[in-house]
Design brief:
CATH superfamily of the largest domain in chain B: MetI-like
Number of domains of chain B: 2
Radius of gyration of chain B: 24 Å
Strand content of chain A: 15-25%
Number of helices of chain A: 11
CATH topology of the largest domain in chain B: MetI-like fold
Oligomer: heterodimer
Mean pLDDT of chain A: 88
CATH architecture of the largest domain in chain B: Orthogonal Bundle
Low-confidence stretches of chain B: none
Structural class of chain A: alpha/beta
CATH class of one domain in chain A: Alpha Beta
Radius of gyration of chain A: 21 Å
Mean pLDDT of chain B: 83
Helix content of chain B: over 70%
Number of helices of chain B: 13
Distance between the termini of chain A: 38 Å
Helix content of chain A: 25-40%
Order of helices and strands of chain B: HHHHHHHHHHHHH
Largest interface: A-B, 29 and 21 residues
CATH class of the largest domain in chain B: Mainly Alpha
Order of helices and strands of chain A: EEEHEEHEHHHHEHEHEEHHHEE
Structural class of chain B: mainly alpha
Number of strands of chain A: 12
Strand order of the largest sheet of chain A: 6-7-8-3-9-10-12-11
Largest sheet of chain A: 8 strands, mixed
CATH superfamily of one domain in chain A: P-loop containing nucleotide triphosphate hydrolases
Low-confidence stretches of chain A: none
CATH topology of one domain in chain A: Rossmann fold
Largest sheet of chain B: none
């Protein structure tokens, strides 16, 4: 049985411009210790998917209208608020995109890192702070004992993201959701943070959902990949599948639009034409149709389902496209 | 930290100097002359001679700057605020008698304001757009719209008509009979407090709402904390910073401005003293009251600034 099984998840937001289907019938699963990357551009629904799994969608305006999120044998969507609080931070932890604003400016680092231990492990504050020292050491913060009384503004962005990781790992969760954990950081720091995250999840035996728009990150750190567009998964497979043999026009477009150092030829970067989709007014057929080079009449009227190509490699596209000649 | 406090206290000197000059001059510019007032009460046909000797006796014959220097040096060198022009009792005696009463009323009003404002403001924000929120907000609009002198008058007049009950007119000091004193202060404190609470409540609601939307509150949710812990531990400290500023400003209003309520409930505090002094043009008392209120306001502002250091670790004082 997989650790996490998301089935038909649909999340909507009521906005002034109408109902926005941010996540539309999304299904994926995740084995223990595995790293799954969810890739897509801004507004593709990848963060909302993660927030829906953790029950952190603000209600209203958000609402999960369909689907199941099976985790350790229970449907998380069926749990009461109190039961869900027991899961959050203990069994499933989350790391957010903005290390600058994700730590409370008025509380000490020690309190914030020790808090999950105090909450879920029922440790006293003294013990929790002791635990925090160990966690800060794990994320390679120098002289951790003396930093307990420090406040977030005394840390750099990279250091704060290390603190966030320490906080997430506190209760050795089975699943860590990292929502663009390195987007706000310097390029030099990004690699360090991802390495750290990868090593620690391996050490703690945690599975990870890595949300990113950076395909370079995906290739290096993910076992499997889901590519999302306009709230739906358009292609999924192993990292090798997606990287070596992308089959959806959107994935192909993404690949063509990133610079690669390992290519000899002077290749031109090809942007994806057209505008990102308007989630409040999606076309009836394939959402990518207006921007697709391979579009047919069928694509405009009928929505392609996510179907297997080979093994676990799946795509939602009528056309048979490939970058292999 | 100590250096900071010393610096702030030194900065008081120019502030108070300018305040004292302004108060001293403005008070003497009030139309109507104390000499006229005094003479008219005794003898309508007072001669020019009487007038001059009276001016001389009261020290009002000197040019204004000489009067000022005499007044301020007496305060600085001997702590002597002068004497009431009418009763020739020391001004300091009046101030010492009246200040504790106003402070007590202010403190009680303040406690009422916070007890009302903070919980309702927090509740309103956490349960935004629910019935409870609307009730809380309607209450605060009502309190903003009703002037406290009107409410005070209603509270004095209607119980008297309906039940033949009216608040005690003779003031009983706290030291003499604490219970009776408190029961006497109860109504004016509630009226002052609730009208102050309206603004505080609305600000509290706004800042809590704003803090609830911060990323770090989402982090706190992701840790599995309960709503109560999130509000108390993660939201409150951040939300209180602007509220403390407002509370400081209100404290200043309370010390100087409970004039009307003190008048309605006949509470002999600073407000009533000021009112009597102004109507009698008793200059030394007026300036004395202003000076004491001014010092209190500046000190309260200093306390507010110091409290930022406790709430916001980014504020490093010193």
């Amino acid at each position: 049985m997989p650790l996490l099984e998301v089935d038909g998840l649909t999340t909507r937001f009521r906005t002034e411009r109408g109902v926005v289907q941010a996540v539309d019938n999304v299904s994926f699963d995740l084995e223990e210790g595995e790293t799954l990357a969810i890739v897509g551009e801004s507004g593709s629904g990848k963060s909302v998917t993660a927030m829906s799994v953790l029950g952190l969608i603000p209600r209203p305006p958000g609402e999960i209208t369909a689907g199941r999120v099976m985790f350790e044998g229970r449907d998380l969507l069926e749990l009461s608020d109190e039961e869900m609080q027991e899961v959050r931070g203990d069994r499933i932890a989350m790391i957010f995109q903005e290390p600058m604003s994700s730590l409370n400016p008025a509380l000490t680092i020690g309190l914030q890192v020790g808090e999950p231990l105090n909450r879920h492990r029922k440790m006293s504050w003294t013990e929790s702070l002791k635990g925090a020292v160990g966690l800060l050491r794990k994320v390679q913060i120098p002289d951790p004992a003396s930093r307990l009384q420090a406040y977030p503004h005394q840390f750099s962005g990279g250091m704060r993201q290390r603190v966030m990781i320490a906080m997430a790992l506190a209760c050795q969760p089975k699943l860590i959701i990292a929502d663009e954990p390195t987007t706000a950081l310097d390029v030099t720091v990004q690699a360090q943070i991802l390495e750290l995250l990868k090593n620690l999840t391996r050490e703690f035996g945690s599975a990870m959902i890595l949300i990113t728009h950076d395909l370079g990150v995906v290739a290096r750190y993910a076992d499997r990949v889901c590519v999302m567009y306009a709230g739906r998964i358009v292609e999924s497979g192993t990292a090798a599948d997606i990287y070596g043999d992308p089959r959806h026009p959107y994935t192909l477009g993404l690949m063509a639009s990133i610079p690669r150092l390992d290519e000899d030829t002077q290749r031109r970067l090809v942007p994806i034409e057209g505008q990102p989709p308007n989630l409040a007014a999606l076309p009836p057929g394939c959402s990518f149709a207006p921007r697709c080079r391979y579009v047919t009449d069928r694509c405009r009227s009928e929505r392609p389902a996510l179907e297997a190509i080979a093994g676990r490699h799946m795509k939602a596209c009528f056309a048979n496209v490939s970058n292999r000649v | 930290m100590q250096a900071y406090i010393v610096r702030r206290l030194l900065a008081l000197i120019p502030t108070l100097f300018f305040a004292s000059v302004i108060v001293f001059v403005v008070v003497r510019l009030i139309p109507g002359d104390i000499i006229d007032l005094m003479l008219s009460q005794n003898d309508v046909s007072a001669s020019r001679m009487d007038r001059q000797s009276l001016e001389q006796a009261l020290g009002l014959d000197q040019p204004m700057h000489v009067q000022y220097v005499r007044w301020i040096s007496a305060i600085l060198l001997h702590g002597d605020f002068g004497k009431s022009l009418w009763q020739s009792t020391p001004v300091a005696e009046h101030l010492v008698a009246r200040l504790p009463i106003t402070l007590e009323l202010g403190l009680l009003a303040f406690i009422v304001a916070l007890i009302v404002a903070l919980p309702i403001g927090i509740y309103s924000a956490v349960r935004q757009d629910t019935a409870g929120d609307y009730i809380g907000r309607s209450f605060s609009i009502l309190m903003l719209a009703i002037p406290n002198f009107w409410l005070g008058t209603i509270v004095v007049v209607f119980p008297a008509i309906w039940w033949g009950w009216s608040p005690e007119v003779r003031y009983v000091p706290f030291t003499q009979n604490p219970l009776q004193n408190l029961s006497q202060m109860f109504l004016p404190a509630i009226i002052l407090g609730t009208s102050l609470s309206a603004v505080t409540m609305r600000l509290m609601r706004t800042t809590v709402l704003e803090v609830l939307r911060q990323d770090y509150v989402r982090t706190a949710w992701a840790k599995g904390l309960s709503e109560r812990v999130i509000v108390v531990r993660h939201v409150l400290k951040n939300a209180l910073i602007p509220v403390v500023t407002l509370i400081g400003l209100q404290a200043a209003i309370l010390i100087g401005g409970a004039v009307i309520i003190e008048q309605i409930f006949v509470i002999p505090g600073m407000g009533l003293l000021l009112l009597e002094a102004v109507s009698q043009r008793d200059y030394p008392i007026i300036t004395g009251v202003f000076l004491v209120v001014g010092v209190a306001v500046v000190l309260i502002n200093l306390l507010v600034d110091l409290s930022y250091g406790l709430l916001d670790p980014k504020v490093r004082l010193g």
